[in-house]
Write a structure and sequence with these properties.
Number of domains: 1
Number of helices: 1
Strand content: 35-45%
CATH architecture: 7 Propeller
Radius of gyration: 20 Å
Low-confidence stretches: 1-11, 15-21
Helix content: under 10%
CATH topology: Methylamine Dehydrogenase, Chain H
Number of strands: 29
Oligomer: single chain
Structural class: mainly beta
Mean pLDDT: 89
Order of helices and strands: EEEEEEEEHEEEEEEEEEEEEEEEEEEEEE
Largest sheet: 5 strands, antiparallel
Shape: globular
CATH superfamily: YVTN repeat-like/Quinoprotein amine dehydrogenase
């Protein structure tokens, strides 16, 4: 077993609060690298080049990896529902060393996959070989994908693609950052994040053009650094946006919109004991229009059912420190991805491990998800 480090950072800049040192077990077949909950019964976990799906809440798993999928080629995975999913991969290199991106798609829960090229071969993708990509789909036909490009820590670049036929063909558009995009409808979209997490961009033409926007920051948070999460929309007009106000005692704020994102209001906030630096966020998930659940570590679960006006705090059982991502299907059922690291000596002979956990009681108790 590997012991957990006191603090672990997720790929999205999320950071976990120190908690009791519950060890996580090495996972046979590889460590989980990403996950998505689709419903209380359905979800998927990716690990070291393979993709596994469950239809019974994690009791049993099926390997739905496309034939020939290379472990180091996957850039991003997304499912709209239990049937429709997409995988972006690095394809073959051409004579000029340019890589052609490929998108694999399924409409039958991974039983069969079809492949389509995305964009033109580019050396940018060769230089960004290990860079992540993300998808967002409004429905089975209309979707967007962002490919993050290699850059220094002071910059954040990417390419944006849009499909209107379920991923068969893709058109390249512009985008200010290499971060994921979210759309309320086919025209109005949002992108948040950036090098220090405080960038906020909007589009009103489906991603063809973007402009910077700002959220109102209350005076009590003027000395903090706002780090924007990704908005979630539950209609063309109503959405929720979690924001971390990073400071010595960081606060999770809940913004809402009722006009499709034209304006946002801070509905409520909850301070934690977690100190955060610039660009780091509290792992959280917007469950529905009213419910947000945050897990800033393994020792506390924060939840609100009224858009952040009031909060309940739970001390969970069985959840280690190092939570880097949480995803909830409902107020009760959710998953957490936990990452750990250990060095045999100072910054030497280091190893990492990860494991997925599930709760069925709103975060009070957690059990490991066993894929084997």
């Amino acid at each position: 077993m590997l012991g957990l480090a006191a603090v672990a950072c997720g790929d999205d800049g999320s950071v976990a609060e120190e908690a009791s040192a519950i060890p996580i077990d090495p996972v046979a077949g590889g460590n989980p690298t990403s996950m998505q909950v689709l419903s209380e019964s359905h979800g998927w976990i990716a690990r070291d080049g393979s993709l596994w799906i469950t239809a019974d809440g994690g009791e049993s798993w099926t390997d739905i990896s496309p034939e020939g999928l290379q472990p180091n080629s996957v850039k991003g995975i997304h499912f709209l529902d239990a049937d429709h999913g997409w995988i972006m991969t690095n394809g073959a290199r051409g004579s000029s060393d340019a890589i052609q991106l490929q998108v694999l798609r399924t409409s039958d829960a991974g039983r069969t996959w079809e492949s389509s090229p995305m964009g033109e071969p580019s050396v940018d993708y060769t230089l960004s070989l290990g860079g992540p990509a993300s998808f967002f789909f409004l429905d089975a036909q209309h979707g967007w994908a962002v490919v993050r490009l290699a850059s220094s820590s002071q910059f954040n670049w990417g390419h944006l693609y849009r499909t209107q036929d379920g991923g068969v063909t893709w058109d390249e558009l512009s985008v200010p950052l290499g971060e994921p995009v979210v759309f309320a409808n086919e025209q109005d979209g949002f992108q948040t994040g950036g090098p220090v997490g405080d960038a906020f961009f909007v589009t009103h033409d489906g991603g063809a053009s973007w402009e910077a926007a700002q959220l109102p920051i209350p005076s009590e948070f003027a000395a903090t650094h706002p780090v924007y999460g990704r908005p979630s929309f539950f209609s063309a007009l109503q959405g929720v946006l979690p924001v971390t106000f990073a400071a010595d005692r960081s606060t999770l704020g809940v913004y809402t919109t009722s006009d499709g994102g034209s304006s946002w209001q801070l509905k409520g906030a909850r301070a934690t004991s977690l100190p955060l630096g610039v660009g780091l966020t509290i792992p959280s998930d917007v469950v529905d229009l009213n419910t947000v659940i945050a897990v800033p570590g393994g020792d506390k679960v924060y939840s609100t059912a009224d858009q952040g006006e009031t909060w309940s705090i739970t001390s969970p059982n069985g959840l280690p420190a190092g939570v880097s991502d949480v995803d909830f299907a409902s107020e009760r059922v959710g998953w957490a991805l936990v990452q750990s690291s250990e060095c045999r000596s100072f910054k030497d002979d280091c190893s990492t491990a990860s494991q997925a956990f599930k709760t069925a009681d709103g975060g009070q108790t957690w059990v490991p998800l066993a894929l084997d």
